[in-house]
Automatic annotation (TrEMBL):
Transmembrane segments: none annotated. It comes from Chryseobacterium endophyticum. PANTHER family: ER-BOUND OXYGENASE MPAB_MPAB'_RUBBER OXYGENASE CATALYTIC DOMAIN-CONTAINING PROTEIN, SECRETED PROTEIN-RELATED. This is Oxygenase MpaB family protein. It is an enzyme of class 1 (oxidoreductase). Pfam families: MPAB_Lcp_cat (PF09995).
Amino acid sequence: MERIMLQPRFKDSEHFKDFWTNGNGRQLLEFSGAEVSFRDFEKFVPYYDHVDETGDQVVKDIYFTQNFHQASKEIEGYIRNGISEGDDTPESVRQLFLQVQTIPEWLDYQLIKSGAELCMRCNLDSLISLRDYCLMGGYDYAYLNKPLIATEALKKGAVKRLSETLDFWINVTRYDALKIHQKGYEFAIKTRLIHSYARLSVRKYYKDWDTENWGEPINSWDMMATYIGFSLVFMHSLHKLGNTISEEEEKGLFHLWKYVGYLLGIPENLLPNDKKQATEYFYLWTSIQPPADDDSVLLAHSLLNESMENPALKYKFQRRNLRYLHICCTWFLLDDEVCRRLRIPEVANRKAFPLVKRALNKIYDRLVSREARIRKGNASQMKVLGDYHTIVQHSNFH
């Protein structure tokens, strides 16, 4: 049965109007200079049912025909060594790798370098932004979270999920990481196939999937929104925390995530080039998303409580303090209404830490050279990632 034409069904809802007239949506409009309307809505509608069919076919041909370890080794061989037209490989594999090995005409490695340097230069603010704005804020979009619930991501635990997100983000945002056969390129392709594996599993095992409302699992329109989270929303968070961002870094950040999106199989016309375009795309997507539901609250509180589960800090009072600081940042970065929907706890003096951090960032940016900040930020971020690797490898976080 053919689906009824998708409409911007929540455009008159309180949560949508409040976000775009009073909350972070209004700030994004001012920050980007975007001009929003529903004029182009129908151009995006087909992508709610669009998925990465090439990636799906690779999973069927490779992962579903042998054990997982053997399949992973085979894919790693293609990633690290490449393929050519005459290779004796399944057609789906050849199709995928000929695409990702083709450098798009628009690609500018110097711009990618500038974007990577912004990610490193902002040090732990980058990780705060990812966690307390991008990830936590994403939980407010109830339909976007359904694949996480369907694949039982909560059972994996927040420590493991956060470790995987951090692993991906850090590895695609280092110098030269996205050049063919390099580590970021490898992470992008593996993540693409993880998405396909999850999508096929949801289709096969999750009988309650509501395609009418939720679209296809991990569809291209939702993927677009996710990667706008890594670019537009991430940059807005850095700005709110008092970081200065040059025009070159801004262009670079969007260029970096446009190329990551290309490697992940997201259609190129869904990948914004700048903050104005990203905000206009994001506006349309949010009109089909209801506010947080009970699943959203479970995901949000799992992330909040990760600080208490994570043994990186030895003493309970240290973990409790870290949780408090993340709660403060969440209230500072997200709208109050979003925090209330996600049932983020009220805490005393919640503005103090973010405001002090914002003031110190402005001073730090003036006193310390850009090159020194990049080196320091890279070292700090790699240290955090190393701590997570150690925890996951030596603990029962499965």
